[in-house]
């Protein structure tokens, strides 16, 4: 197994990223394997109740056309909203999410999440993804169902199953 | 660096998956790195003009609550629709995608994409994700912008930049 | 006040429609004023758990370009899904709705609603609008929040306030 | 046919509204029949490139539960975005629109539209609806397809058919 580049992807870079993710991941918010594989940095602005998720660029995240894959963008946006919900309201599961794509992303990006409507049961959020030049490249809105307010009828197993609402 | 399990994730399984993806990926539809890392199998029903994308389950794809991460589901659905567009119409870029989550996924799944409205410029598609028991776990609808019908004003560079419409 | 046509709209047709709606409307499902003004006919297929809402065409429903206004389409689709929820599950309020427009509508249309995922708390539905030739002209998907399963914490007033979740 | 109230709706108020709409409507932006029936006032902030659409409350716009019908909200939001597109970019047709409902509306409201991404072919917009107390009651995002940039291949008839893309 050599370390020669494969279609622009340097195998050693991928292997180092994977080993780091294996060594540092835990099944908790902010540190689960996919978040570590993407090398995300999640920070919070507690006064404004916002999250910022930073995503470094990596060749292995490209789509067939060469820019950051839309599924990776969806993953990062989902994380920016889920972490926000978890920190300021309660654990919740995604009901639906809509994503809009404005520009291809070809470098580091950051994703800013904020609450649109923090309802007692249903929470609406939005997230914006910017590139290094500060240009808006994608946006997302989503609704989540809070698990705390229906606690009487939730079993622990159900609580652990996102989406099962 | 040992191969002992980390939070339910077997490092050897992850490493084998990564090496296979490095060895078999190419920057083309169906074989780019992320599609290979997820070990996707894409098949087509040319008569019905449908795609089927099969996704094996893997521990490293779990969210903090333990089931398949919504971002992975988004990635697979996006691929099911992009491949469909590419095979039956033309290369196209995602304008927007909305995803709905019905049930958590905890095993292998398959995603079936079909055309809703194959317009000359704008294409609407939908995709449904089922678990091994055949239960509907998630659905997505999306619109894509075809790049072929505006060819006069598209430069090759623009064609290569998804979302830049 | 004459009955001469105003930009293609026959005032007498509008007045007759309004008088009929005033005479036949009640603040209940299927018979509230807007549903009567649009002259909707709502029918159900109880075996398949589907609704069909028929909308006659009228000149006063045109947009500035001359076809059926998207807001009217949204109204009819919302009704097709709300009535479905109400008949087969419980009263519920719309969390969100996404609509897709495929073709302009210039004549009578019908809207068919069905359940995508009848959850205990969150219900996902979809609706398709067809023209007289049976062509798919628009589609919608939506999620609704059921009010029955949270009955302990709902006051009658809250139940009467759609969207307040 | 008397003018006695029908389920909270004063027939004379409805008739006066209808006569005013018949007398003042024209098949143009801002003055077509539905916009006049809803008694909308559309204003623009040219510096910020925003629209504001004001909607007076009327009993005949209620849903079966008693608040402003979601289809009316959709109509007003669609108008706020279509007018924005028309004034600052070009005529365009709606590809899709997603609406989120946060609070029931029981009085006058105003809807503020702004451009999210004014692309050369695809335009993304958003709109927020506020009640008299300034509370956010609903939001919408949408994508529209501009008709000017594809002018070579558009026939006048196609231009007149929204959604036919």
Summary, kept brief:
Chain A has 165 residues and is of the alpha+beta class.
Question: What do these coordinates show?
Answer:
Four copies of one chain form a homotetramer. With 165 residues, chain A is α+β, with helices and mostly antiparallel strands. Chain A is 25% helix and 32% strand. The first copy, chain A, contains four helices and six strands. Chain A has helices at residues 11-24, 33-37, 70-88, 156-159, and strands spanning 41-45, 50-55, 92-101, 109-118, 122-131, 136-146. Chain A has a six-stranded antiparallel β-sheet with strand order 1-2-4-5-6-3, covered by helices on one side. In chain A, a hairpin with a 4-residue loop joins strand 1 (41-45) and strand 2. The radius of gyration of chain A is 17 Å and the shape is globular. Chain A binds chain C through residues 95-96, 98, 119-122, 124, 143, 145, 149-150, 152-153, 165, and chain C through 95-96, 98, 119-122, 124, 143, 145, 149-150, 152-153, 165. Strand 3 of chain C pairs antiparallel with strand 3 (92-101) of chain D, so a sheet runs across the interface.
Please render the helix and strand layout as text:
The structure is a homotetramer of 165-residue chains.
Chain A: H1 11-24, H2 33-37, E1 41-45, E2 50-55, H3 70-88, E3 92-101, E4 109-118, E5 122-131, E6 136-146, H4 156-159
Antiparallel strand pairs in A: 1-2, 2-4, 3-6, 4-5, 5-6
Task: Please outline the major beta sheet of chain A.
Answer: 6 strands, antiparallel
The oligomeric state is homotetramer
Chain pair with largest interface: A-B, 59 and 59 residues
Taking all residues together, what is the mean pLDDT of chain A? 88
Low-confidence stretches of chain A: 1-5, 151-165
Rg over CA atoms of chain A: 17 Å
Q: Helix and strand succession of chain A? A: HHEEHEEEEH
Share of helical residues of chain A: 25-40%
Number of helices of chain A: 4
Instruction: Give the tally of β-strands of chain A.
Output: 6
């Amino acid at each position: 197994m050599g370390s020669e580049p494969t279609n622009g992807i340097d195998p050693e870079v991928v292997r180092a990223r994977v080993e780091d993710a294996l060594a540092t991941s835990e099944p908790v918010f902010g540190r689960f394997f996919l978040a570590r594989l993407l090398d995300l940095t999640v920070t919070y602005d507690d006064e404004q109740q916002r999250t910022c998720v930073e995503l470094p660029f990596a060749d292995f995240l490209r789509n067939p056309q060469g820019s950051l894959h839309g599924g990776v963008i969806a993953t990062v946006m989902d994380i920016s909203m889920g972490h926000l919900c978890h920190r300021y309201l309660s654990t919740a599961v995604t009901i639906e999410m809509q994503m809009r794509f404005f520009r291809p992303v070809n470098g580091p990006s950051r994703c800013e999440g904020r609450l649109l409507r923090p309802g007692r049961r249903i929470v609406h959020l939005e997230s914006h993804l910017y590139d290094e030049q500060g240009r808006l490249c994608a946006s997302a809105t989503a609704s989540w169902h809070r698990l705390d307010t229906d606690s009487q009828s939730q079993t622990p197993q159900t609580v652990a199953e996102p989406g099962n609402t």
